Amino acid sequence: MPKIAEYVKLETRRTLRDPGFVIFSAGMPVLMYLLFTNLGGARQVDGWKAMSMVGMAAYGALGAAMSVGTGIAEDRTLGWLRQLRITPMSPRQVVVGRALTGSVTVLPAILSVLVAGGLVNGVRLDLWQWAALTLLLWAGATPFTLLGIGNGYRLTAQATGVVNVATLMGLAVVGGLWFPIDAFPDWLRSVSRFTPANRFADLGWSVTHGAAPGLTTVAVVLGWLGIFGSYAVVSYRRAGRTA
Question: Which of 76, 11, 67, 62 is nearest to 32 (CA)?
Fold first, then answer.
């Protein structure tokens, strides 16, 4: 555990020192949230600003989590992966360490949108709801961190950036993070409910309605956690053989 803790500290410092990461991971979701909810006669139905707040916080967290993979791909180019393989850490420990780093760096994206919802858009929730919302979105972003890690160890730096952006956009749209899935065709709505982004956001939407996340939501999130976690470990081992 001490080895992982030191590794997480190192990677977290490296990530948070990048002003571009902080601006785009925390600033862009806030800007999009305020635009979607305040300009051009945006929908004013009951709960829309709270629902959009959760969706955009989830989108920001998803983007910040997956961006870890871009840094990994760049590190591979610099030979950092070869250095890690001669340390006492196992492949699983390295992946866990990167996942924990991603979990820390998603917090600015989540908190910035929630603060904008409460202070700018006047979203009102009980104190326990704010706390539960933050905690669930923070923990629920882990599968996407693992997906980004897997891409980073498997692809080149340029390809990782392209794939991560395309995946982020696709998951956000199909998952209903930008627009309610009620507007989707029936077949797409059925698919959306089993996508990782939709069930991730549903962790937060449930809390805004004063309820605990449903068993289906938790099961789907855990299922994707297992899939993306396995993908990250396999990608790391494969990268080590070809490094």
Answer: 62
DSSP 8-state code for residue 87:
S
Q: State how many domains the chain has.
A: 1
Tell me how long the chain is. 243
Residue 7 near residue 92 (C-beta atoms within 8 A): no
Which domain does 132 fall in, by range? 2-242
Residues 35-84: pLDDT tens digits? 888 875 555 555 788 999 999 999 999 998 888 888 788 777 766 666 66
pLDDT single digits (tens) 121-171: 999 999 999 999 999 999 999 999 999 989 988 888 889 889 999 999 999
Buried b (16+ CB within 10 A) or exposed e, 99-136: bbbbbbbbbbbbbbbbebbeeebebebeeebbebbbeb
Residue 103: what pLDDT? 77
Going by the DSSP 8-state scheme, the letter that residue 90 receives in this structure is: -
- Which own/partner pairs from 120-126 qualify as long-range (CB within 8 Å, at least 24 positions apart)? 120/34, 121/33, 121/34, 121/37, 121/38, 121/49, 121/53, 122/49, 123/49, 123/50, 123/53, 125/50, 125/207, 125/208
pLDDT of res. 191:
92
